[in-house]
Design a protein that fits this description.
homodimer, Arc Repressor Mutant, subunit A, two-stranded antiparallel sheet, DNA-binding
Chain lengths: 117, 117
DNA sequence: CCAATACATCGTAATATTGCAATGAACAAT
DNA sequence: ATTGTTCATTGCAATATTACGATGTATTGG
């Protein structure tokens, strides 16, 4: 009757090791799109190609720190590139990574639709 | 010099009202895919078409409560249907909603790739 | 009726996410 | 040099997510 070892370890943290590489990759990229502000940001950058944080902030109506934070999340996932020019940082879509997302998504659809459709 | 009204309201909650309907819809569906377990579940259900929580739980190696919780998240987003038969609940892909996700994703790609590619 | 099965839900603990004011760094302009 | 601009980072508060044991309900099998 051991009620020991009920110690809560790894509480609140996703168990990524249980899943395949490509499943984790898709989850990471989907997480970028799981917040509407990040979708709006990607839409905006895709439309202007070479954008500043202050302009994005003004467009999506979130504060500069919040906008910057979202930009870092997108960049860390690989969907954005950036380049400093003077005091300005220009953000651009990383087209290669966007293509990767596209193919992972395609793969997900093919697997999921396999026998149900 | 009013340091009043610095009261933290709406802290920690997404400002969905700032974004368009379709952006929010895509974000909601992307949130489903933002956890690897939920991708694995959808893959599995798409493959077997009519699955039980216990079998999914055994396959993805998460506890029954955790698996059930993920299933409710996916179902609430509309990507799953379910039907009770005796003591068993059979889960199936909601093909219409999956198609909706596909088209929202397509739309996102077209907007984002507009001028950068 | 009684045990076993399948599942959702509750409660709880730990971590993650979201948002912004305040701050500091780097550069531009005067 | 001083001021203004642009941005990332820090610190904090509030909410959301993740995971699972324990529990209750409903059904099946004996």
């Amino acid at each position: 009757m051991r009620t020991e070892n009920l110690i809560t370890e790894n509480m609140g943290v996703s168990k990524r090791h249980l899943h395949t590489m490509s499943v984790n990759q898709l989850a990471d990229l989907a997480k970028v799109l799981s917040h509407p502000a990040r979708i709006s940001i990607l839409n905006y950058i895709g439309d202007c190609d070479g954008c500043l944080c202050k302009d994005i902030s003004a467009t999506i109506k979130l504060s500069q720190p919040t906008t910057s934070q979202h930009l870092q999340v997108i960049k860390k996932a690989g969907l954005l590139k950036s380049k400093f020019e003077g005091k300005s940082q220009y953000y651009r879509i990383n087209v290669e990574k966007l293509g990767k997302l596209k193919s992972l998504f395609q793969e997900f659809f093919e697997t999921t639709e396999a026998k149900c459709c």
